[in-house]
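Homework help board

Subject: predicted structure for assignment chain

Our instructor gave us this sequence and asked us to write out the predicted structure in token form, then describe one feature. I got the tokens but I'm not sure how to describe them. Can anyone check?
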Amino acid sequence: MHLFLNCLAASAGSGLTYVRNVIPQLSVRPEIRATVALAPKLRNTLGSPRNISFIEVDLPAGAAGRFCWEQAHLPRMIRESDADVLVSAGNFALWRSPVPQILLSGNSLYTSGDFRRDLRARRAYTVWLNTRVRAFFARRSVLWADCTVAPSKAFADTLRQWTGGKVVGLHHGFDPEIFFRDDTDLPSTLQNKIDSGKNALRLIFVSHYNYYRNFETLLRALPHIQEGLGGRPVQLFLTCKLSTEESSGSYRPETAAALVQRLGISDQVVELGTVPYHLLQHLLRASDIYVTPAYAETFAHPLVEAMACGLPIVASDLPVHREICGNAAVYFPRFSPDGLADRVVQLERSSKLQEGLSNRALERAREFSWRDHVDQLISLAHGLKRSEIGYPHAA
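My token output:
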């Protein structure tokens, strides 16, 4: 089996996590060869895995430029590689793939009514229009692909309802050997920030700043948490900075930064900035509770990483969060600061509840495996290859 993986869209977040975990899994399977198209910057982080060939591509800037380049040039590259099946990462498929195509679709913003309402409320009309255009092609992509893979069953259900296409849910995985491999201490600048609040209840939320992660609900919850704890100090660790200079993409953090000042919680919000993946375990283990107020999600890798560290979790009540965490978390209505605060205070007051969630979190994290994910992906590819006779797009 020869797979062609289009990973040109993998530039941040879950896309990078996916590539960095799937490539090593493919490389240890002697029956699999893979050709991977990716950006030169990502290539430098992957070493020299066995049975994997890389094609480095400097793409035009922007999603539109990437999409047009792929449609024009990828079919020829796939034919020249003599691949059996194409795996298209990044939510967009080839319109006429020369081989059977599996699409990896993992962007819940294209289907989220909450996100559209949020953008209109913020008057972020450019982002709204851009999302609508991308959603059109993402929806068509599900129909262009022979099979679409979503990272959770909940999101697979959403995609099927949205498109009527063939969609299966395959959980993304977790590799504890990779995640816990590095025992390097945190840099002193990070460690000093973590140690800055004596006897504080330490909350952590791992995310770049963006609108759909719903930072404002979390920030509004902090004064209620402080009040519910009877004045005990609270610290919220963020793996981003709420400043325009530090933000990426089209999401503007000025509203969140102004909210911090208006609520008088600047001493409680600890903006750590981006934390390298290999150091994340230390940050999670230094925290007491993982919180996520996101109103749109497809899988949420940090939840699995937090569970692997034994952290109790307070999560917004999304079907995806319940699917991933199960009974290893407590849940609150996604736009309710009071509900979030009540859950945190409930946890802080009950060591029995904390211990129960922590134990179940460790058990739950062991259920996610990149090996299992890749096994199922390869099985799908074999099924498509067997049905390739008479394939309408074959050269």
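Reply (TA_rk): Your tokens look well-formed. For the description, you could write something like this. The chain has a mean pLDDT of 92. That's the kind of observation they're looking for.
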